[in-house]
Queue: 2 jobs
Job 1
Amino acid sequence: MTAPADTWAPRWLVLMRAFARQGASRRLAYPAGYWVHLLNTLIKMFGVVTVWSVLYSVSPGSFPIPLPDMIAYGAVSAILSELLGWWDGPHYLIAKRVRTGLITGDLLRPMSLPYQLFCLWLGESLVVLGLVVLPVVAVAAVAFGIGGPASTLAGAQFAVSVVLSFVLVFCLNFLVGLLVMLTLNLYGLMVLYHSVITMLSGVWIPLWLYPQWLSDLTMVLPFRSVYFTPLSIYVGYVRGGDAWRDLGLQVVWTAVGLAVITAAWRAIRRKIVVQGG
Amino acid sequence: MLLVTAGGILKTVEVSDLTKHFRIRRRDERSGPVRNLFRPAWDIHVAVSGLSFGLAEGEIVGLLGSNGAGKSTTMKCLCGILAPTSGFVRVAGLDPFRDRKRVARELGVVFGQKTTLWWDVPVIDTYRLLRHVYEVSAADFDRMMDTVTEVLGLAEFLNTPVRQLSLGQRVRADLAAAFLHRPRVLFLDEPTIGLDIAAKSRLREFVKQIRDETGVTILLTTHDLQDIELLSDRIVLIDRGGKLFEGTLAETIARFAPYTTVRLELSQDVPGEIRVPGAVVERDSELSVRVRFRRDDLPITEVTGYVMRHYPVRDFTVGEPQIEDIVREIYDDTPKAAVVPKVLDGSR
């Protein structure tokens, strides 16, 4: 049973590599899809930049940061949303595989389902990072003159924050996937999830524009950590001790997320109804 | 590790008093859609109830039953995908649900209707992935790949994406995937479904060969009775979630098809009724007659001797009881199957 694998690497890393490679080649399997994706990201970024420029010129007083920063916020969020996807992802994969019964195949492998999905998603995201995000960043920098992070420290904090966001959004997606598994209702849940993320994470609307009560509400929810934390650090809206506090909060939410998906998955496995003979 | 059951028999796979219920949403017409929204009604569907059987090391057992009899549910419990409602299952002495990962290492599973291969990438990619998942060394992997590609004829489509494979190719590729890590137990759920005759026989040959060479224990469900006849040492018949019978093919035939039919062709019309003592005679036409009798009560030579002496018989054929007949009888459901005692002792 324990055939000595011819590698020095620990099992989790071997599996991560193998599944990430699988995810990457899945993402690369359809070239047409790639070009559409790239174009779509460019259009999205262009749209966001345009909207903020217009809004800013109408009412500059509503914004606590200068226009270039606001444009950077919009452009980076548009690009980041390709990496921290909540529409396509593990939950969509779970839903599809539960519906067709293919989930049985995933459960036959001697490794945990969440980890399989995470590694697959990681592989897909690395492809997106290299082939979509980086080219669009180049376009953003050259064509729109969008600036880098507020400082070197902010850049480093931003990078750490994005990694944490990646894990956190995976946890959220996975939880939605489990709900789909229980209710066998993908579409309704996805629409709800979509509105929650767009409203409460700061991905499209910076949270400083919200009335106090709504802003307070986002403070006690995990969604803020996904987008608003890295973005506000990037543009320098949050800095110093506040940045560290937000990063700390992100760490807490990510840890909670991981604990919750582990427990929830354990609890829900019992209730699985696998469809189809 | 082997499990020693109460009877002291070593079982590699054991199903003991397995019961599995599903809750199914009921569409309640009377209370209306709004009420359904807030207080949905549920029905309990009993997929498997009180099922018990076991497989000794190296055995091939066929699990037979009509659609919805509980075969796949039983398989899923054995794979650790579903948790039993009550009773228990063991694979290599382990509880598959609680010890899913450990059991998964001992298991190879093929669902004929679904694939466990990655859909969008070449077949070989899945194998490479599985090599890491099951920690197969490179040398073992290469050796195994040589064997399976040769016996199953995979070489021609190893680099083709799974979505472009024909059904026969896909099932062969799935079988190879299930066996790559040399599992101790194979579950084959309708492995030959939809395959042409050549593909079927190739698949059966592979299954036989690996069993003979590696002593793997195999549980097989199928609707193809040839699979059962050619592969299984024993069959377990299930119906509506419970066991109907368990035994060898010969025992099953003796139990469920105790009658033999001799078909006679007469050289000339015989006026009046044709009688054979101890047998039922049916006349299909003037020259064609069927004689049906219990094998246990009446030796076949006696029947044929009797008719040859008393009637102008030109030719006769003996209809051997077929497993098909039995299964048809059971599949045909209610009236006839109800005659058969619901729970029978395997008593061996």
Job 2
Amino acid sequence: MATTAEEVRSMGAEGAAEKDDARTSHRLALWNMWIGFGAFALALPMGLYQIAVRSGLFPAIQSDSVYAAAVSTHGVLMAYVLSTFFIMGFGYHTAYHSLKQRPWSPAFAWTGFWVATVGTLLAASALLTDRASVMYTFYPPEMADASFYIGVALFVIGSWFWCVDMIIEMTRWKKANPGRAVPLVMFGTAINAMLWLWTSMGATLEVLFQLIPVSLGWMDTLDPGMARTFFSWTLHAIVYFWLIPAYIVMYSILPREAGGKLFSDEMGRVAFVMLFIFSVPIGFHHLYMDPQQAAGWKLLHMFGTFMVAVPTFITGFTIIASMELSGRLRGGKGLFGWIGKLKWTNPVVLAGILSLLMLTFGGFGGVINASYAMNAAIHNTGWVPAHFHLIYGGTSVIMYFAAAYWLWPKITKRKLWSTPLANIQLWMWFAGMWIVTAPWHIIGLMGQPRRTSDQPYDSAIADSWVPYEVVMIFGAALLVLSGFLFVANLVMTHRNRTAEADPTPRYAVAVHQPLAVPKLLNSLGFWSVAMAAYMLISYGYPILQFFFLGTPGSMEWGY
Amino acid sequence: MKFHVDPLEKKYIWAVMAFTLLAFAVQVYYAAAHNAHPPSNVETVDSSRLHLEEGVGGGEFMEKNLGLKRDENGELVLTMVAARYGFYPQEVTVPVDEPVRLRIATIDVLHGLHVPYSDFNTMVVPGYVSDMTSTFKRTGEFPLICNEYCGVGHAYMYSRFNVVPQDEFKL
């Protein structure tokens, strides 16, 4: 068939435009993710420092103020900066490659990036100069310098640009492809964007209407009970904001890397929707021990908290079934024979296995935290940071590593510098995470309080924590080494001269790959309304009460 | 519209739902039958006036009123104040196997309180009184520890908490 010169020219232009689009989304992905991983590399050694100080073995580095600044910085950089920037970068890549349409507005995306980056720099400079040693939870009436809160606000507002971008990308695709199922990888990403909009609202209200006005002297007092209630709105759902990208990798990348198929596309959607609905309106297990909320509300939130078990168990089933499928395709026989046949040397598969193992134990610990009565035994003990290090630092972050190992060759078009090193790094992270969190859980049960630089309680009980704290130092050292190996592998990939053989990203296909799915599993509208209603029920009165309780306000305190 | 769920996965989801319902049932049972509730009294106090007779709270947390007492019903009530960086009184002795009701307020920032190996655990939030009851099951000397970051001296904030056999307990 003859092609006219006109057609050839337009095809060429299209090809060039496509190349430009790919370059734009890749650049957005890289810049965002490098801010995240840069913050990670900066924050990582601080963890080792804190564990070393706590053991009491190194009097030379003992300092209460450096310790408080280090915990605050480590928390903010790991929990907010690493997670959010990684998620944004991954999202831009996913939107472009899964939807295969022209990016909606690169200028809008870059604006969000710069707003969030300026906010991060502002907050980080306050943290590193000892003007914001208020922990990543920044509970008033202890107050940081105003620049810290302004930085946090800008950071969050910048991330909202990403949320809007993801939702618009999905909406545009649906308009262009009526009746078709949004690719699962993008559906999960858009759900997570919507989740973050809802999640971040609580802390944002606290920062804008309580913390910034008081820190600037526009208001004299605030109600710390109200501030904690706002923060609980953000503090639990943020965990699912971190976790969903890990699940996205498991559902949409892992099965293909394992050499098989996704067991069920629809159940993935069900899991994402349930994670969304049962994440935000359930934050009161963070307030179980607080006097400013009544028992009935706490019980109500407990029900919602436990519902999260359902999508978590669904994900466990679907992902393990997908892995079994791939193991059997590779010749695995018998009840457990497929496990040995898995591609243990593929970083995505290896990370997925290790991540699920950590999720199993971390999830069990979470049941204790969420329990209406049992929570009293572990509240604010070492058990709590042990739990979230296992679930976030372990389960989620190991999948961020896996995603990066998968993404970097596709973005840079260069072969991953060293796959064996990547696998060693993942094993080290897994081992280090256990060596840190297992003793930490145990001393939590023995009453060791969190966020303490020392334990001068003149008590045999406090002495009994020390051996466990010494073991933790080895785990922390292993984690630091592992984290640096990860960053080094990415840096060396940028400089690798060997080209990647196949840089096209391809997502996993399901056993029954759906062309269309029920409307509720393909759209965000209904679920946003459902979320609004559920939020009104669970947070409406508990927030409203502060306007007629008449609590005497608290003035600002230093730390 | 077709919606594929594998039959095995369907059974599994039923099992997960059953597990979740069981978790609900156990918790509601213990809350109702054993009165196991977290501290939730929603009672306000003026944290800047704890040392004064007048105002919200009315002198309950004045220095002379702190410590362990029996109330009009003969129940043990421990009144405490949290202030950077200590709990007052600095030493408390309670009997084993008898309910102790704690009432505590803070004069400054957020604090937390926990006696290891017990469920004697509460937040102390400025502007609110924390009220909870617990029974100690084992005797011994424990630290009563601040477990919520309250400033650079957080690690140094504690009281001594002794749980003694009932026959050794004197008020």
